[in-house]
Amino acid sequence: MNHQYYNVIGVMSGTSLDGIDIARIELVRTDSWNFQICERKCVSYSSQWHDRLKDITLLDPDKIHMVNQQYTELLAQCINDFIIEHQLTNILAICSHGHTATHDPVNGHTLQIGNLSQLARLVNHRVVCDFRVQDVTMGGQGAPLVPIGDRLLFNEYDYCLNLGGFANLSYEQDDRRIAYDICAVNVVLNHYARQLGREYDDDGAFAKAGTPHTPTLEKLNALPFYTLQAPKSLGIEWVNENVFPILQKLTDTKDALATYCAHIAIQISKNIKAGSKVLVTGGGAFNTYLIQLAANKSNVNYHIPDEKLINYKEALIFALLGVLRLRNENNVLASVTGAKRDHCSGMIYLP
Question: Which residues form a coiled coil (predicted)?
Answer without folding.
Answer: none
